[in-house]
Amino acid sequence: MWKASIMALIPLFLLLLPSLAFSQDLGVPLSWRDFSNSRLRAERISIAKDAINSILPQLDTSNAQFHGIGYWQAGNVFSAMANFDHLAGTKTYQTQVTNGLKTAFKLYPISISLGTTTMMPCGGQLQLTTVTGRTRTKAYCQWPLQLGNMSRSSGYNVSVHHLSSPIYQSVISTADASSGKQPKKSFAIAKTCDGESMAGGVFWRPVSTDSSINSITTGLYTTLSAFLAETTKDAKYTNAAILSAQWIQKLQINAKGIVLDGVDGSKCTRSPASWLFTYNSGKYIEGLSVLKDVTGDIIWKALMTNITAAAVKSSAWEGSNGIITEGASPKSNNDGVGFKAIFIRGLDEVSARSGDNSALQILIHSYNDVQYNALLQLAANGTSYSSDWKGPPQAFTTWGQLAALDVMVTAINTNSP
Ligand SMILES: *[C@@H]1O[C@H](CO)[C@@H](O)[C@H](O)[C@H]1NC(C)=O
Ligand SMILES: *[C@@H]1O[C@H](CO)[C@@H](O)[C@H](O)[C@H]1NC(C)=O
Ligand SMILES: *[C@@H]1O[C@H](CO)[C@@H](O)[C@H](O)[C@H]1NC(C)=O
Ligand SMILES: *[C@@H]1O[C@H](CO)[C@@H](O)[C@H](O)[C@H]1NC(C)=O
What we know:
- There is one protein chain.
- This protein has helices spanning about 40-55, 70-90, 95-105, 130-145, 175-180, 215-230, 235-250, 280-295, 300-310, 340-350, 360-380, 400-415; strands at about 60, 65, 190-195, 195, 210-215, 260-265, 380, 385.
- By secondary structure, the protein is mainly α.
- It has a single domain, classed as Glycosyltransferase (Alpha/alpha barrel), CATH 1.50.10.20.
- A two-stranded antiparallel sheet has the order 1-2.
- Mean pLDDT is about 80; it is low at about 1-20 and about 110-165.
- The structure holds 2-acetamido-2-deoxy-beta-D-glucopyranose (4 copies).
């Protein structure tokens, strides 16, 4: 979790490690509330566009931020806009997204600029110790992956992020894991935790003394590397994606198939087992969906399918009706409020890449429809939505609107006709 970065001192041996035998039931639970919808594509496009247009008045074009939410959250808004254009086949938000990125990257020159849009690096470059700094560093990790495949939207230009970029300096290489030394860290790193190599884990803050590694940063890294592998066909990105995917697979999945939060890269202590957040599983399955296509390796497809099935049914963030309750916060913004949007975006990518598994696609569209119908029927006030998806409706908040966008955009894709 972004804010709660300090690993609780829970020794690893207290944790039941995964057998990876969690079940893969792709059936739609009949207890889910209203899991289908008959709105036609044109209406779904219109609903998504109205939702995006309702947040745009909050955009400050001078700094590419949105009033009421933070920097990394803003990356999620631009991402939803780009995905809208991709899925609707339009260029509606091309100018705003492109200008927003240019502005953000100019103001925060840590970015590496190649082409008309740029993927942000994260970690490894700024020595930031303040809370603001940490938030901003997270943002750098978050932005590129929120943007997804910009080149899929005609007129958008995707740039390439090289292995020499800062995010790639925050990973533990195989050699680092063998030597117990990571070049950007001043302490001895754990070579193994619970008998598994720490190679592939990614530190989430660039401070030389900070030893925290987490699943979201490693999942972002996996996803970024897999997308780059797909785009460039360069094996170094494929290998980077595989190593980090393996790290999560071996160390960060609980017995129910849900991705855990963090591990201390020095002492192997862990985040509490109860720290289960949608976006950790969501970003990982997004990366796995690309990795399975890049490698053709059925292990990644099986793992993606299993985690997806487990995550959409997890009691960690929903009751039997299926409506996600995580991050509901009618009165104030918080880091967790938009995690569920990142989860939904990951599910969308899994669905888009699972044309050979109709049961999985049905499960995903049913799950998104549960959220879609809840937002439209229980949480909507005109075209704005509460961050509490089971309702009640309330006056517009930027964070509530942000959280809803990916559901609206995903519904364009996962439903038919
Ligand atoms: C996925 O789940 C199936 C069914 O429970 C299991 O046989 C398989 O080993 C799992 N695969 C992975 C990679 O988790
Ligand atoms: C995208 O960016 C690259 C790198 O700057 C450039 O060579 C290319 O012409 C751009 N493509 C488009 C369609 O703008
Ligand atoms: C983006 O999509 C295009 C067209 O579908 C594909 O050729 C390209 O490999 C994809 N790139 C990434 C980074 O996903
Ligand atoms: C709906 O939004 C309007 C305008 O923001 C606000 O005045 C009104 O109180 C909201 N309705 C509910 C039920 O919260």
